[in-house]
Amino acid sequence: xxxxxxxxxGGAGNLAAYLAAHVLLCLLPAFFIAGAMAAxxxxxxxxxxxxxxxxxxxxxxxxxxxxxxxxxxxCTIVPLFAGIHKKGAGLGPAITFLFFAPAGNxxxxxxxxxxxxAEFAFARFALSLLFGIGIGLMMAVLxxxxxxxxxxxxxxxxxxxxxxxxxxxxxxxxxxxVLIAGTLKLWPLTATVGTLTLPLPWAEVWQAxxxxxxxxxxxxxxxxxxxxxxxxxxxxxxxxxxxxKGLEDIVEGANRWTWVALGLAAATLLVAAMxxxxxxxxxxxxxxxxxxxxxxxxxxxxxxxxxxxxDAWRAWLWEAWRFVKQIFVLLVVGVFxxxxxxxxxxxxxxxxxxxxxxxxxxxxxxxxxVFMYFPTLVEVPVAHMFLDLGMHRGPLLAYLMADPELSLQxxxxxxxxxxxxxxxxxxxxxxxxxxxAGLAYGAWVDGMERVWIIGGLGSFVAVLVxxxxxxLGRRAIPARV
Amino acid sequence: MKSVKILGSGCANCRKLEAVARExxxxxxxxxxxxxxxxxxxxxxxxxxxxxxxxxxxxxVSSGRIPTQAEIQSWLA
Lengths: 481, 77
What we know:
heterodimer, A: mainly alpha, three-stranded antiparallel beta sheet, 3 strands, 4% strand, B: alpha+beta, Glutaredoxin, four-stranded mixed beta sheet, 3 helices, 39% helix, globular
């Protein structure tokens, strides 16, 4: 019984910590941004660079951009992957797109940044981009025959042109401003503008009750539920209920509940940006620079959103709501389970296996990433748990590179489209590149001379290029990379 | 009798599209046969870059979004 209680409180504590202010300030705007990207960016504005006649200098960066801007969900990933491969620029850009999409989209980056730090998110982004293009090029060279046998269909799919309008662009940029204002840890955002003490005598009692319900051990990096946290959880539940009534049929038009849900979402962001501290006899409300900045950015979002056409804003809200339904529930369950599991893992195990930054530790991390399948974004709290338990940041990045790219689901999907032999090659390449990425980032964190890291990465690339050149040289017909 | 095909691997948007399309047909009193296409090869036979796709009488009328009931009724008419 005691064991059961300990597990449950571990799960609840972990969940409460993730629903705290700093995570909400990142996730809530990120869902709206993801929705806006899916609904407001015309796909043709990027896919026109992915046609079969595109040069590789254009098609590989365009494939990466498509991965980061268009592909937040499998509804887009699978058809676009199949389309680029069969009717467009070929296998290489399709693989680049596939590799980069799970790591380079806004939800993954924002979430990684808020949980594991901005530096880590940047390393994940940059190395995925570099290696995504690298793996795409290698696949194109290895299987050049595939591209030579393009089916003779028209290029119409990728010939459409479109550009993004002023109002959608304004909405996107001001949403990004909300995200930045909410998450950046810089003065003047962190400054306190003024404080106000609300006479709420029950606040202290409630805080004591919360700490009693969810006991925590600060030494193990756990966080309890604060008064502010409990208020945010309440607001989230209210958003969920009103969104269900207001956003489920949004394609047919808005109703009263739509405005309630959106108002609550804005209120949640503002509450999360302020600081509420229980003091004797009441609650101290601190107005921060962050709250002012978030409020200003929200006004900008409203200003631009009013200029959107009815179809556009309805589609935007629907996509945002769909992402919430699809991802948030999984995330809540996943975080809860991670909290339970964490009670059972001894830090020594992790430290012995992956506490250092060497080839073995990185290989173990990649292997774990390949065999474990976590639903979208749950890999981030899992990574956070490993970090707390003493995993080195190098192997941690290797794990984060391999896990979303090589889930069981994606392997099955890829092999259905490009066949088993190419899929195994792809899996092998991803494993190799992930290990190298982990080693490089780990060396960077350990403060190794920058020259050595760049030299090491450079010689890795040089070996690859030489191998590629040799493979190309053995073939009479030059591959179309 | 109209033939309506819903293209999609079974994600949330495809289910929503099917519900909206069925509702549109019923409320306009149009007799239509609904087919769900989930096989990726069959889906790619219609030129589209993202699901869900809506095909009416073998013609792709929308892809990557959920049209309103009024739109679907105008295509069905």
